Amino acid sequence: MKQLSDAILNSQKSAIRKLFELLLQSSDGISFGIGQPDFTSPDFVNKEIIKALNEHKTQYAPALGLPTLRRVVAQKFQKENNMKGVENENIMITNGGSQALQLSFAVLSNPGDEMIMSSPNFLSYIYLASYYHLKLVEVPRLENYGPNLDAIRKAITPKTKFIMINSPNNPTGYVYSKKQMDELVQIVLENDLYLVSDEVYENFLYNDHIHISPGSYDEMMDRTLTLNALSKTFGATGLRLGYVAANKEIIELMEKYGQYTAAGVNHPTQYGAIEALTKGNPDIPQILQNYDKKRKFTLKRLKELQFDVVEPYGAFYIMPRLNPNWNMTSEVFSNDLVKEEHVACVPGNGFGSYSDYSLRISYATSDELLEEGFNRIERFLKKRS
Ligand code: PLP
After folding, report:
1. What is the ipTM of this complex?
2. Which residues line ligand 1 (CB under 6 A)?
3. Substitution site in 122, 172, 228, 241 for ligand 1 pocket (most atoms within 8 Å of beta carbon)
4. Which of 8, 10, 38, 172 is at 20 to 30 A from 285, Cα to Cα?
């Protein structure tokens, strides 16, 4: 048989999925690997989806999404993200943030173009770069997981097409400051680049940190692709509803590509999204209070156990580095921990080339499981001391 796609053959099965498979073999498993909130979509959103289903809205929706939803999304970007020039023609509705990402890579890339990102970073960017025949340029993050903007500047070549950012970040929890965003915008403008901004964690912020959309800078409107989804803010990872804002020409290309690859987004769900994005998630303040407690608890326990930790101010992840005295890569640590104590943390090597000795821990789980999970990690480490 002839060889199948090299790019897909060479991509690893997601480290997170592999871990889940191991964890499922035990009855008392605790997962710190989950990339989703521990709440689900609000009833007022679900009700609209059910209503649309009962009204038999089950035929194709327009490839760009329902016009009313596109208008609501444009208004959301204007009001919440300060992206003044965004109109309906700048919006496409997508199958989750994931399809918004795929479309962004598809319309921006020609074979051999280069894409720059800070590393570690969200796994999908690495494989999308390979599927779209981009050269991936990973720039290691600073010690505090901030972007190394000097190094990013130096990494630019005539072939650089775009920079990929995700703030608040998965897996590090890092949030760009205003000063960093100002500088990044300068870099993009000076070098005539595009910027893809993945903002799916925009609502998960702690200690008065704020979210800044690069698309809100006047000169950036035309060169920023801003993507988001209901997935994290509304606890709706299974609804598969995302959206992207970009200049009109880019949206037209996305429409063409989307038409031939996905032919639109689940129709009834789009009615739920209209309601969701009109009202917002009223539970967010309460959720953040709760997550902040978990974040502090996780930080405290990791410090007590002698991990090297950087305090995260966004998303619901923390990325501790393993203590060098333990003499373990994150792959060995995670595999042994899951086998011995039935606790799953994601090994850092799933997030790029610079995190072989780090773990990603998601604290979006119950207080009881967090406490029990750390007691087990403590026992695991005691056996090795
Ligand atoms: N972007 C980031 C940074 C993510 O962490 C995720 C999911 O974990 C996504 C995009 C994908 O979002 P969705 O589930 O809406 O496709």
Report:
1. 0.99
2. 35, 96-98, 122, 166, 170, 198, 200, 229, 231, 237, 242
3. 122
4. 172
Between helix 367-382 and helix 284-304 the angle, nearest 10°, is 10
- Provide the residue-wise pLDDT of the chain in tens; the chain has 385 residues: 999 998 888 887 666 677 777 777 788 999 998 888 889 999 999 999 999 999 999 999 999 999 999 999 999 999 999 999 999 999 999 999 999 999 999 999 999 999 999 999 999 999 999 999 999 999 999 999 999 999 999 999 999 999 999 999 999 999 999 999 999 999 999 999 999 999 999 999 999 999 999 999 999 999 999 999 999 999 999 999 999 999 999 999 999 999 999 999 999 999 999 999 999 999 999 999 999 999 999 999 999 999 999 999 999 999 999 999 999 999 999 999 999 999 999 999 989 999 999 999 999 999 999 999 999 999 999 998 7
Long-range pairs for 259-266: beta carbons < 8 A, 24 or more residues apart: 259/63, 262/95, 262/99, 263/60, 263/63, 264/60, 264/61, 264/62, 264/63, 264/65, 265/61, 265/65, 265/93, 265/94, 265/95, 265/99, 265/240, 265/241, 266/61, 266/95, 266/239, 266/240, 266/241
Same fold, 6-41+283-382 and 43-279: no
**What is the best residue among 118, 166, 167, 170 to mutate for testing ligand 1's pocket, by most ligand atoms within 8 Å of CB?**
170
- pLDDT tens-place string over residues 86-136: 999 999 999 999 999 999 999 999 999 999 999 999 999 999 999 999 999
Query: What is the CA(327)–ligand 1 centre distance, in A?
Result: 32
Task: For residue 31, list its beta bridge partners.
Answer: 344
The residue whose CA has the least distance to atom 10 of ligand 1 is 97
Ligand 1 atom closest to the Cα of residue 35 is 8
Would you identify the CATH topology of the domain 43-279?
A: Aspartate Aminotransferase; domain 2 (3.40.640)
Mutate to test the pocket of ligand 1, among 103, 127, 231 (most ligand atoms within 8 A of CB): 231
Q: Parse the chain into domains and list their residue ranges.
A: 6-41+283-382, 43-279
190 C-alpha vs ligand 1 centroid, how far in Å? 29
Name the fold adopted by 6-41+283-382.
Aspartate Aminotransferase, domain 1 (3.90.1150)
Q: What span, in angstroms and rounded, lies between the C-alpha atoms of 105 and 234?
A: 25
Residue 156 CA to ligand 1 center (angstroms) comes to: 26
What is the Å distance from ligand 1's center to 310 Cα?
Answer: 22
CB of 216 closer than 8 Å to CB of 247: no
